[in-house]
Amino acid sequence: MIKPLRKKHLQIWVALAVLIPVGIISAWFSIPPAAKDKLLQPTSAVALPVVLKTYPSRGGFEFNIRTNTDTTQFQLEWINNKMLTYPTATIYETRLNDSNVQHGKLLGRIEARGSYYFMGDSTFIPNNISTYQLVLYDFIHQRNIDIIKL
Amino acid sequence: MGASYLAVGWNRQKKIYDWLIFGFCVLYLATFVVLTAIFNPDYTFETVLIRATSTLAVIILHVILSIGPLTRINKKFLPLLYNRRHLGVTMFCIILVHGSFSILQFHSLGNENPFVSLFTSNTHFGSLADFPFQALGFFALIIFFLMAITSHDFWLHNLSPKVWKTLHMFVYLAYFLVVMHVMLGVIQYETNPVFIIIMLTGSFTLITLHLIAGTREVKKDNVIYKLKQDGYVLVCDIKDIQEDRAKMFCVDAERIAVYKTGGKLFAVNNVCKHQNGPLGEGKVIDGCITCPWHGYQYLPQNGQSPPPFKEKVSTYDVKIEGTHVWLNPKAYAEGTERPGAVISVVNAE
Ligand code: HEM
Ligand code: FES
C-alpha cells in the first residue's frame, strides 16, 4: 500500500461510516407497516374441514373458502395447479370495485407452486363475501395480476 | 516473479485454505437447506437457493473486507491475506447463482426479456419502500464480475497496479450497493430478523475495523521527524529494530523500511513492486528482504531481486550516531547499491 492509497481508504470508510448508517436507518423507517410477506407461512397450515364456497379454476390456480364445523373460523385455500408465471405474489382482499391493494387487507403471500391456507375473517361469511374481491398483487413488479370477485 | 507469468502458486497451505473455504460453503448451504425444510417447508427450491447463496456470499464478503484492516491490527491474520483473492472469486461464483436464479425466478417466466424486465418492471426510483432494489444488486454483481475476471496477476501487470487498484477500490461501492439491495429489498417485506442482524453486525464491524486500522496507519504516515542535519532525520534508536526485521518511517512522500541484518542497517523503499506490499513488515530470509504478502525478494544492500528476477526498489542512506539511527529520505535510483550503516559493538550497547 502506498501513502495516498492509505489515505484514500480511510476517506472512503469515513464516508461509508456516514452513508451506511443513513442508508440503513432510512430504509428501516420506510418499511411499510404491514410487511408484505407477513405470511408465506402457515398461520393455519391445516385445511379447515368444511368447504363453504368453491370458485372455478382460473388459468393455473383455484381457491376455496373453508370454515370449521361451527362456522367461527374462515380460511382461504389457495391451490396452484400449474407453475405460475409470477413467482412471488401476494393476495389482498379488497372491497368490490376498489382494486387498490393499499386499501385492502393482506391475506398472504404465495409462490409459483404449492397450496396455501390463509386465515380470513367475518368478511368470508356468505352474506358478506360478495361485496369483496381478491386482488392478486405482484409486489416485485408492483402490479395487479388478477382481480377475482368473491 | 516478474520474469514470466507463472501460474498462481498453489502451494500446500493455499490448497488447505481452499478446501476449508469449500467445506465451509458446502456446510453452510446444506445447513440452510435443511433448516428451511424444517421451519419453512412451503418455500420453493428456487427461493431456498436464492436465499442460501445470497446470505453465504454476504457473509464471505464481510470476511473479505475485514481481512485488510485485521492484518493491520494484528499480523496473525496475514495468512488470510494470501487467500483473499480466492475468497473473492468464490464469493463471486456463489452470488452469480443468486443473481441468475433471481432473474430466472422473477423475470424469465413472463414474455419480456428478463434483463429488460429487471430494469423496467419497477421504476419507483423516488420511493424507498418500493425502490427497484434488484438493479442495485445487478450493479454490485457487475463490479464483482470485473474484479473476479481481473483477479489474476496477469491483469495486475497489464492494467498497471494503479488502474488495477482503482478498479478494486470499487468493491467499496459494491458493498454499499449490497447493503442497500438488502435493506430496500428483502428487509422491506420479510419479517425474519436474520437479514437485518447480518447487515447490522456486518457493517458495524467493518466500519469500526476500517476506521481503527485506517486512522492508525495514516497517523504513522503523518509523524513529523523534527531533528534534522545534512539531509538526515533522526528516526529511532538501534534497539528499536529487531535483527532481520525492519521499522518503517514516512519522512516524505512514502514509507522507507530500515532493515537490521548481519550487523548492518539498510534502507529500502517500503513498496513492493508486485502489489505494493509493505516490505518493512516482512523479514530477511536467506539474506533477502522478503515481502510479507506474496514473498517477492530483494537484496537489502541494493534493493534488487536476486537473478533471474528483475524487480528493483529504491535505496536510501542510513547512518548511526551513538545509538541513534539517522535516515536520509532522498531516494537513489532503483537498484542502487548502498553501503549501509555498520553497527559497532559500542553502538549496540
Ligand atoms: C443480478 C443481480 C441480482 C439480482 C437480480 C438480485 C435479486 C434479488 C432478489 C429478487 C432478492 C429477494 C429474494 C427474496 O425475496 O427472497 C434478493 C435478495 C438478496 N440479495 Fe440479491 N440480487 C442480485 C445481486 C446480489 C448481489 C451481488 C448480492 C450480494 C453480494 C446480493 C445479495 C442479496 C441478499 C443478501 C438478499 C437477501 C436474502 C434473500 O432474500 O436472498 N444480491 N436479491
Ligand atoms: S506485494 Fe506481492 S510479493 Fe510483495
Overview of the molecule:
The complex is a heterodimer of chains A (150) and B (349). With 150 residues, chain A is α+β, with helices and mostly antiparallel strands. Chain A has helices spanning 3-29, 126-129; strands at 50-54, 61-67, 74-80, 89-95, 105-110, 114-120, 132-138, 143-149. Chain A folds into two domains: 1-31; 50-149, Immunoglobulin-like (Sandwich). Chain A has two helices and eight strands. A four-stranded antiparallel β-sheet of chain A has the order 1-2-3-6, with no helix packed on it. A four-stranded antiparallel β-sheet of chain A has the order 5-4-7-8, with no helix packed on it. In chain A, a hairpin with a 6-residue loop joins β2 and β3. In chain B, α4 packs across α5 (114-120), α4 (84-107) runs antiparallel to α6 and α6 (133-149) runs antiparallel to α7 (153-184). Chain B has 349 residues and is of the alpha+beta class. Chain B has two domains: 12-220; 228-348, Rieske Iron-sulfur Protein, CATH 2.102.10.10. Chain B has helices at 12-39, 45-73, 78-82, 84-107, 114-120, 133-149, 153-184, 186-189, 194-221, 345-348; strands spanning 228-229, 232-237, 245-250, 255-261, 264-269, 283-285, 288-290, 297-298, 315-321, 324-328, 341-342. Chain B is built from ten helices and eleven strands. Chains A and B meet through α1 of A and α2, α7, α8 and α9 of B. Bound molecules: protoporphyrin IX containing FE and FE2/S2 (inorganic) cluster. FE2/S2 (inorganic) cluster binds next to loops of chain B.
